[in-house]
């Protein structure tokens, strides 16, 4: 699409044009478009991202893999790296470590100027010499990448960096983000400093997708392109697979505690799966709902109604619900003594530790009936890891199933570590160490770190179908509201096509004009990806139907 010669009409804001859309930025400072994504009040932003949204269109993001390589050469690219992937695999390179480094290596090979931003906890990693200082961490990265990594102390952004120090064959590492309050607060000024001098942002820290941070959300407002890195892209693909029901029958083994908080996710699972097996503390809530005797100390009184709802949905869908038949328990009088107790029997004097052998036999017998298995949440209760005896055996059962053409997804450190203790190596299972991202996804909540990235449009917009003549000049109105302004423009100027971008789909009226089309989207992150695919020329951009 040719962008030469387009005009800009804005209200309380401006666009930076140029010889191509690759330099197009949206910097609307006071208009409704800016306010809709402003994080002046971070609590409001948290509320916005807690909406239950059944649409998953926001998951279709632009990836570095599909971004034109020639547009990377000479560009300053900020990469948000997940340091946990690096620091958790010290020693010989593993698959996850290689994938974490692939984004950096790819950008470096494309001759982009790479800036790494990340965070590491010096307290938790106190025994790790690699994170004692930014210099030692930069030296560690240099050894992994086989490229010089230059540490930059002080504030983030290129403002504090002497550009003459940036030689062609080097990568910059900014100061530890945990040292700045603006990171967690998603401060607008801090986000702008992070992006200063950069044109492209690449997020490769998928484990932080559920958080609203300056380095994952705020920074996207100041870069013309915001992309998913190779690791991020792969993890997102795997996340979407959790709700994919093409492989069935599909069963979920769900553990852990806090039934009330997980209820929305459990409703999602019971509507997707062909069976649910409850373990851990969640199982007591279900057993109580099924009318079985359960000691009161194991019941969440404020979650009884939610448990009954789950059971009712299962009955309506004719989906079986399973629960433990026996438990490994710790004798309260004889500390350290474990015994197997029937789950519906007398538990007085015993503290539940983990699922028992009979329960494991039951799981082993039903696993072959399913083609897809999700294990999310711990099988154990509140006791220490040393009393967790059932998780490792469950890991063995699922490991065997993965080799029998069954798709197995493990979520959370409990599930992943259970498998590692037995195999000691990589498996065929899909693994998510960070369970929080998956739980939030299953609750139907929008993940801010994903939503902030550019969208992959269309998936595609059929320009030749929505417009009679897709070669006509295009007028784009951002914040179209009910669309009346564009409708009048489309009637008056039939020699142009009109595209409205509006976040609130419900507020948009329907108009039948073959030179008029509306897209429900947040233009802050999707403008470039939508408009760049238009085959004709972009002639005018308006904001809220107003011009200066």
Automatic annotation (TrEMBL):
Q: GO terms for molecular function, please?
A: ATP binding; phosphoglycerate kinase activity; tRNA (guanine(46)-N7)-methyltransferase activity
Catalytically driven reaction(s)? (2R)-3-phosphoglycerate + ATP = (2R)-3-phospho-glyceroyl phosphate + ADP; guanosine(46) in tRNA + S-adenosyl-L-methionine = N(7)-methylguanosine(46) in tRNA + S-adenosyl-L-homocysteine
Going by the UniProt record, its keywords in alphabetical order are: ATP-binding, Kinase, Magnesium, Methyltransferase, Nucleotide-binding, S-adenosyl-L-methionine, Transferase, tRNA processing
Please give the cofactor(s) recorded in the UniProt entry for this protein: Mg(2+)
InterPro entries in the cross-refs: Phosphoglycerate_kinase, Phosphoglycerate_kinase_N, Phosphoglycerate_kinase_sf, SAM-dependent_MTases_sf, tRNA_(Gua-N-7)_MeTrfase_Trmb
Highest taxon in the source lineage: Eukaryota
The UniProt subunit note reads as follows:
Monomer.
Q: Spell out the family assignment given in the record's similarity comment.
A: Belongs to the phosphoglycerate kinase family.
Name of the protein described by the UniProt record: Phosphoglycerate kinase
Species assigned in the record:
Urochloa decumbens
Q: What is the lineage of its organism?
A: Eukaryota, Viridiplantae, Streptophyta, Embryophyta, Tracheophyta
């Amino acid at each position: 699409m040719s962008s030469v010669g387009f005009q800009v009409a804005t209200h309380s804001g401006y666009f930076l044009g140029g010889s191509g859309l690759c330099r197009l930025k949206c910097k609307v400072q006071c208009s409704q478009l800016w306010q809709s994504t402003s994080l002046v009040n971070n609590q409001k932003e948290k509320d916005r991202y807690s909406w239950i949204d059944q649409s998953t269109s926001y998951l279709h993001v632009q990836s570095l893999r599909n971004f034109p390589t020639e547009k990377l050469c000479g560009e300053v690219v900020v990469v948000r790296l997940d340091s946990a992937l690096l620091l958790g695999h010290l020693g010989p390179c593993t698959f996850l470590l290689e994938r974490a480094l692939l984004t950096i290596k790819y950008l470096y090979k494309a001759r982009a100027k790479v800036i790494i931003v990340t965070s590491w906890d010096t307290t938790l990693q106190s025994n790790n010499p690699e994170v004692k200082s930014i210099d030692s961490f930069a030296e560690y990265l240099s050894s992994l990448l086989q490229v010089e990594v230059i540490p930059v102390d002080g504030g983030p952004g290129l403002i504090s960096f002497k550009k003459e120090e940036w030689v062609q064959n080097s990568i910059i590492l900014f100061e530890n983000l945990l040292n700045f309050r603006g990171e967690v607060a998603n401060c607008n000024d801090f986000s702008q400093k992070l992006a200063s001098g950069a044109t492209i942002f690449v997020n490769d820290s998928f484990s932080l997708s559920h958080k609203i941070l300056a380095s994952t959300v705020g920074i996207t407002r100041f870069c013309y392109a915001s992309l998913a890195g190779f690791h991020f892209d792969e993890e997102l693909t795997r996340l979407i697979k959790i709700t994919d029901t093409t492989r069935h029958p599909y069963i979920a083994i769900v553990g852990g505690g806090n039934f009330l908080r997980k209820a929305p996710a459990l409703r999602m699972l019971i509507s997707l799966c062909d069976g649910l097996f409850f373990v851990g503390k969640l199982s007591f809530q279900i057993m109580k709902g099924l009318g079985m005797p359960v000691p009161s100390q194991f019941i969440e009184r404020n979650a009884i109604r939610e448990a009954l709802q789950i059971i009712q949905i299962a009955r309506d869908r004719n989906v079986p619900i399973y629960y433990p038949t026996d438990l490994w328990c710790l004798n309260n009088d004889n500390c350290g003594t474990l015994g197997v107790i029937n789950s519906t029997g007398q538990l007085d004097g015993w503290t539940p530790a983990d699922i028992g052998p009979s329960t494991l036999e039951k799981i082993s017998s039903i696993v072959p009936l399913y083609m897809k298995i999700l294990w999310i949440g711990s099988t154990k209760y509140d006791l220490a890891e040393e009393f967790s005896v059932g998780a490792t055996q469950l890991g063995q059962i699922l490991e065997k199933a993965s080799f029998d053409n069954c798709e197995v997804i493990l979520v959370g450190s409990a599930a992943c570590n259970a498998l590692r203790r037995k195999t000691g190596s990589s498996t065929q299972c899909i693994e998510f160490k960070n369970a929080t991202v998956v739980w939030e996804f299953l609750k139907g909540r929008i993940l801010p770190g994903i939503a902030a990235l550019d969208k992959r449009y269309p998936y595609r917009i059929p320009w030749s179908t929505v417009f009679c003549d897709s070669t006509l000049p295009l007028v784009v109105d951002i914040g179209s509201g009910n669309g009346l302004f564009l409708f009048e423009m489309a009637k008056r100027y039939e020699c142009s096509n009109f595209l409205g971008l509006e976040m609130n789909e419900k507020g948009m009226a329907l108009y039948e004009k073959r030179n008029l089309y509306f897209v429900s989207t947040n233009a802050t992150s999707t403008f470039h990806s939508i408009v760049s695919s238009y085959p004709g020329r972009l002639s005018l951009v308006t904001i809220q139907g107003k011009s200066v």
